Amino acid sequence: MGLKEKISVEKALTHLAYFQCRHYKKIIVVALIITVFFAFGMTKLSFQGDINKEMPEDLPVFALQDKIESKFGGEEVMIIAVCIDKETSAKNIPRDVRDPRVIASVVDLDKRLKDESSIERVQSIGPFFQQDVPDDIEGVKRTLASAPGAESFLNDDFNIMLIYVSPIAGLSEEKVKEATDIIQNDVDAITKPAGVEYRITGTAPLIVELLRIMKEDMIFTTGFATIVIFILLALLEKSFSKGFLVFLPLIFALTWTFGTMGLLRIPVSIGTVAIGAIILGLGVEYGIFMVSKYYEERERHAPVEALKIAVSNIGASTFGSAATTTAAFLALTLSVMPLIQHLGQSLALSIIFCWVAAAVVNPCFIVFEERIEARKLAAGLRKWVGKGK
After folding, report:
1. What's the rounded Cα separation, in Å, for the pair 79 and 158?
2. Is the CATH number 1.20.1640.10 carried by domain 3-55+209-384?
């Protein structure tokens, strides 16, 4: 940033400081209204667990993959693994998935799944036993031996049997989750032999589980960083109120960033799931500099002059830092990968919001807090004088 540009920024910020002193209540009200609007945008925040959708679809190799899947049926397949518990020592439990009790439960599950409207296709050994399930394992072995392709559902040790379930093509992630719940309900409804487990896996359930982990991780990391940073600020400032004033811009920045991501349909993915903690770490310095400078100048100047110096000096300095950092993050949007683009967009927005919250909104709360303290002090003096009389 050149000297002329810096001077012009400081001049603009000086005018801003005078405006903040005169209209701090109006700015606070506007900031709160904007925050409520972005809080509504947070309800539209979406999560993206499918890494394939974060890849560049217009590149030839990805375009060809999509074409092949659409032509030859690149469907999502859920897998139900019927597993024998080898570690249990209980008696009279199946030791082989070809046990008639296991086969009967699989046949029942196969029928239930085929009756579900959200399930397009089910592949299992069920159709080989539509007439009847043999009474002993030897009869099951003979039936499977005469059935072409039956061996593809069993492993070599005969302790795992697979059932392939294909939901209706084109289901959204929410519908896929519903289909997973339907499959789980059908699994719970059948009569299962003791010592046999039915586990659901596959791409779709993995994405659903990944989404759950991402949401929990984002809430935990953001919440943990919030608590730790606020405690550190209160200790460093040696005042709860000053620590809160430093932390306040981060609250605005978090809400505005997540709200904008929701409104602009920027999904939270593996690349952006830690954005909350990153915002807190990158943006805290703006609030520290602004609040510290104000109270430092307040020891020598009146509130208006102290705010003018803090906003013009710190605002101009952090403006240069925010501008260069934002430019660096915006460079990520030039990537061909949507994953990197979304990361750059989110970080650039967060830095802009951190600076605006610290330089434009937070000084108004500083003035507001000082006016409240002044009124408390005046009320205390009046009370003390009244007692003296």
Report:
1. 17
2. yes
Distance CA 35, CA 361 (A): 11
Q: Which residue spans within the chain are E strands per DSSP?
A: 78-84, 119-123, 160-167, 196-202
Q: Look-up: residue for tokens 């036993």?
A: 129
Q: From CA 365, how far away is CA 269, in angstroms rounded?
A: 34
Provide the token pair at 119.
Answer: 């399930």
pLDDT at 57: 65
- Both structure tokens of 18: 């005078």
Distance of CA 306 to the CA centre of its chain: 40
Q: Which two tokens stand for residue 69?
A: 């899947």
User: Is residue 291 a contact partner of residue 245, using CB atoms and an 8 Å limit?
Assistant: yes
194 vs 163: CA distance, rounded Å: 19
How far is 189 from 105, CA to CA, in rounded Å? 10
Maximum CA extent, the chain: 110
- Tens of pLDDT, residue by residue over 36-72, are 999 999 988 888 766 666 666 666 665 666 665 555 4
329: closest CA among 317, 341, 338, 339? 341
Q: Report the C-alpha gap between 97 and 193 in whole angstroms.
A: 10
pLDDT the model gives residue 252: 94
Q: What is the DSSP string of 155-176?
A: -TTSSEEEEEEEEPTT--HHHH
CA dihedral for 56, 59, 60, 66, sign (positive or negative): positive
Residue identified by tokens 């001077």 is: 7
Predicted confidence at residue 36, as pLDDT, reads 95
Amino acid occupying residue 292 = S
Q: How far apart are CA 153 and CA 249, in angstroms?
A: 58
User: Which two three-digit tokens encode residue 349?
Assistant: 């927005």
d(CA 190, CA 187): 6
Task: Return the pLDDT at 382.
Answer: 61
**Whole-angstrom distance, CA of residue 85 vs CA of residue 107:** 20
Which segments of the chain have a pLDDT < 50? 1, 3, 5, 72-74
Query: CA-to-CA distance for 374 and 382, rounded, in angstroms?
Result: 12
Place of tokens 């439960």: 105
Region(s) of the chain under CATH 1.20.1640.10? 3-55+209-384
3-state SS, residue 23: coil
